[in-house]
Design a protein that fits this description.
CATH architecture of the largest domain: 3-Layer(aba) Sandwich
Number of helices: 12
CATH class of the largest domain: Alpha Beta
Helix content: 40-55%
Structural class: mainly alpha
Number of strands: 6
Radius of gyration: 27 Å
Number of domains: 5
Distance between the termini: 69 Å
CATH topology of the largest domain: Rossmann fold
Length: 289
């Protein structure tokens, strides 16, 4: 089947919007304006109406639509070589790096396709700098972010947004944690609660926790997900002795086989030794919190 751009001009905006909704995944809610061409700071829709483009594709086309110099360079390059994977080198990347670093007065450059990739790469760079240059102790680096920011459609410690509570009977507990301690969610406010969110939550909790302790969990408990994620990530996992000795449970034996440890009176010192010294110490054998 062969399609041409001209063939689509005969379709109404309503028809195109309906087809997009019918066949496209619903990951965005754009304005009901169907654009068809642009020049400089202006764009036109399929009905011939002209608009001043103040969004500029989130700054991706600050230079204007169909800039003649950029368009000529695109056509020339597409006529020579369409794309090279980063598994190969090409004759344009090095000159691009040189010009970009000279323009921005940077010593190195790392191009990205999206804002999400840029932010994620920046986090990885500063984390590596923290460990290798600043000398932050292993597994002690912390990245502080602000609420209500948007850097891309990624999932980046509860499994619900901070404005939701699940299950509802935990509302008072969640409020107390938020007021007296720290409540973290990797899901933006207003996000729907989905089953897979709890897997993401468990993975994040295992990653940022100094140790995971399971004191009660049936075979279908969400705590088991965090336990397995802790083992997969090489994080300390302790299982209460009463749970490990329960003959009706098979999962404790499996986790112990992969490196989990039993938490009992005899292993309390081992447990506290696995925690960083900045945490509160025991007072008279009890937790001070």
């Amino acid at each position: 089947m062969s399609l041409t751009l001209e063939a689509e001009f005969d379709r109404s905006a309503a028809d195109l919007i309906a087809a997009e909704s019918r066949f496209g995944a619903q990951n965005y809610k754009p304005l009901d304006v169907v654009l068809t061409r642009g020049e400089g700071a202006y764009v036109w829709d399929t009905e011939g109406r002209r608009y001043l483009d103040c969004l500029s594709a989130y700054s991706a086309v600050n230079q204007g639509h169909c800039h003649p110099k950029i368009r000529e360079a695109m056509i020339a390059q597409a006529s020579r070589l369409t794309l090279t994977s980063r598994a190969f080198r090409n004759d344009q990347l090095a000159p691009f790096y040189e010009e970009l670093c000279a323009l921005t007065r940077s010593h190195k450059a790392l191009p990205m396709n999206s804002g999400a990739e840029a932010v994620e790469s920046a986090l990885k760079v500063v984390r590596k700098w923290g460990y290798e240059v600043k000398g932050v102790a292993d597994d002690r680096a912390e990245i502080i972010v602000c609420a209500d920011n948007f850097h891309g459609r990624t999932i980046a410690i509860v499994a619900t947004p901070l404005d939701r509570v699940y299950p509802k009977q935990n509302a008072a507990l969640q409020h107390r944690i938020a007021q007296d301690h720290l409540l973290i969610s990797q899901f933006p406010q207003g996000s729907p609660v989905r089953r897979r969110s709890f897997l993401f939550r468990s993975r994040t909790m295992a990653l940022i926790s100094d140790a995971t302790v399971i004191i009660e969990a049936r075979h279908s408990s969400e705590s088991l997900q965090q336990g397995w994620e802790a083992l997969r990530l090489g994080r300390p996992l302790f299982i209460a002795k009463s749970v490990a000795d329960d003959p009706s449970l098979t999962w404790p034996g499996a986790m112990l086989g992969y490196g989990a440890r039993i938490l009992s009176d005899e292993t309390l010192d081992e447990f506290f030794d696995s925690l960083p010294p900045r945490l509160p110490v025991r007072l008279n054998g009890e937790f001070p919190f």
